Every structure is written in structure tokens, then in C-alpha cells.
Amino acid sequence: MNRLLNNNKLKEFYMQMYNFNSGPSILPEYVLRKAAEAITDFKKTGLSILEIGHRTTAFIDTLQEARQLAKELMQLGPDYEVLYLQGGATTQFMQVPMNLLGASDTAAYCDNGIWGTKAIKEAEIWGNVNVVSSTKDKNYSYIEKVFAIPDAVNYLHITTNNTVEGTQWHTIPGTGQTPLVADMSSDIFSRPLDFSRFSLMYAGAQKNAGAAGTTLVIVNKNILGRINRNIPPIMDYRKHIEADSLLNTAPVFAVYVSYLTLKWIKEEGGLEEMWKRTKQRAELMYAALDSLDIFTPIAAKEDRSLMNVTFTIENKNWEDEFLELCKEHGMIGVKGYRTVGGLRVSLYNAMPVSSVVKFTELMSMFNDRKKKAN
Ligand SMILES: *Cc1c(COP(=O)(O)O)cnc(C)c1O
Predict the structure, then answer these.
(1) Which DSSP symbol is given to 149?
(2) CATH class held by domain 270-373
(3) Ligand 1: distance of its center to the CA of 121 in Å?
(4) Where are the domains of the chain?
(5) Which residue's alpha carbon is nearest to atom 2 within ligand 1?
(6) CB of 186 closer than 6 A to ligand 1?
(7) Of 39, 136, 154, 301, which sits most exposed with the smallest number of CB within 10 A?
(8) CA-CA distance, 87 to 44, in Å (whole number)?
(9) CATH number of the domain located at residue range(s) 41-267 in this protein
(10) Helix (H) or strand (E) holding 253
(11) Which band of pLDDT confidence, cut at 50, 70 and 90, is reported for residue 1?
């Protein structure tokens, strides 16, 4: 009999999975359950979330609540606007300079990983870029934290967490009067920060803030309208703000999933609680990596990401064997990105601490097996 035909079996099948994917990635069970309900009946409208109009009260309420929740979790004041846009974080690589960087102006960028490098390439299309720090020399395995910001740059851009390389800014750099712009795609809502130090933050929802299909942009509106460029309305943050983030058809379902995710974060205890769990998960992982002979973390110790943990195995030939073992135990998404190699596990908000314990037990078992055999 097909196991997928049997509901209980189906549940068992899914419950055994440990999703370490980097994005789209694990979501809280609460979110999946509520999203599933909305597929058949959204807020008792009798309509599916997939067929409901984006200008219905039912949806507008959800969108506005989600925007409000994001601000509340980040403790941001009235200068900030939350937008749910489309095109992924990748579109922000273009949209940020389009709105903030005049053709003859200069922006400062930190080059700490492949995503930051992409952001730099796109900014160069719209104005001048001054790369104030780069860690390309060591394949982006660390973060250069000491650098000077030239006067008269329109903004400084950083990637708070390097998803691919497994490094993270643990202290947000001071920028004085220079507006700070950050790609927070893979660590947004994982820790409390003084978010008012950022002038613009963006994040694809599919890592720590929902499902694929929408991108959060959180912007201090005072930095907009300072440059002289004809911006197509759909690319103009001011137009989206004027329209309360409903300039055109919103990605209705993706916004709803993000709303549910933010609601879950709030109900679990907000960013303080997320931060507690973030630290627990990362401590477990790095303790295992530091103590087991055959595993070695890739990132420099002081810059280790608490979200995406990258590591290698002593003998490269053992990688496939370990990945196979992971698969047998329902642990997926463990393979590293091709530019970095090795292995990577992503430990986003929805990842239970107990799943990380299970993973480190598997590492330990594999380590013992290899030590005995050699
Ligand atoms: C995943 C990721 C991106 C790309 O996001 P898309 O939504 O696929 O465009 C950009 N920056 C960082 C830090 C990421 O982790």
C-alpha cells in the first residue's frame, strides 16, 4: 500500500524529517497547520487564501497586521515602514541603489560573501561603489570588522549573516551619520538588536520569516527622496509606502505565511526567546564541531554564524557517506554550497533544539565509527 495514502503514516513520515535546508526552510508546525486551513477556508470567508482578492478586508487586515507585527518585534518607531515586496532579496540588490544612490554618488559596501558580492555588482550599475572591506582573500571565512567609512557616501551596506559561508556580524558596525543598509535575509528575527541603527533592512521571507514569494523591506522613510532619479513606480519605495504595501497584487499566500510566522514568534516570546534558542542551537553545534576529531568548522571562531553552520570532514571521501547516513535518519539539507564545499546545517527559528541534539548525536556516532576503523 502506498504509505502516502494513509494519513497516520503520512504524519509519521513527515515527523521523522529534520529539515536543515538553507531556504526555503523549516517552518513552525503551527504555521503549516494554519496555512493549510487557509487553503480551504480563509478566515471563514468560505474562500481559499489562494483565490481571495488582495483588496478584500480579510486580506488587507492580515497584511497590515503583519506589517505592524514586524515593527513591534523590532521595536521600531513611526519613522519606519514595513513593505512586503516581490522579486526576492536579489531584487533589493538593485532596488536599494536605485532609490538611494544617485548616478554620480558613492555607496560603501562590505564584501563578506557571495550575496554581498552580488549586491555590489548591481549597485555599480546605478552609481559608484567603494568596497570598504573584503574577505575574499580567505574565501569569505571571516568578517573584516575594522574599516573606515569615507565621508559623503550615501550609505554603508552589509550582509548581517552570510548564509553560504557561515559567518555573521555579532556587533553591528557604528556608522555615525552614514545610513546603514543591511541584507538580513538569513538572520532577521533571530536576535534582538537596536534596529533603529539601520536605515533600511531587507530579507527574503523564505529563510526566517515565512515562505518563498515575498521580501520584507523595512525602511526609515527619512532616507528616501534624496536623490534625483526617475524611478519606475514599482521600484520606488515611496510609492509602496503611499499604497500601504498594496501597490499591485500582493503575493497573498506568502504574506499570510509570513504573518503567521511573525505571530508565532510573538506568541513564543518574541526576539528575546528566539535569541535564547538561537544560542542554544548554535552552542550545541559548535561544541560538537570543536570536540569531535573528524569535524572542523570553516568560519573563523569569532565570526561564526549562529544560523548557518559550515564545516568539513577530515577525509573528503567520508562526506558522501555521512550525507547518506543523515538521509537515513531523515536529516536533509546538510550538503554545503558549491563555492564553499563541505557541509552546512541551517538552524533557523523553527528548528527545535532537540533536532540539533539528534544531529550532534549522529555526528558523534559517525566520528566514533571512523576513529575505530582507522
Ligand atoms: C538567500 C539569500 C539571498 C537571495 O534571496 P532571494 O530571495 O533568493 O533573492 C540574498 N541574500 C542573502 C543573505 C541570502 O541568504
Answers:
(1) P
(2) alpha beta
(3) 15
(4) 41-267, 270-373
(5) 185
(6) yes
(7) 301
(8) 30
(9) 3.40.640.10
(10) helix 252-268
(11) very low
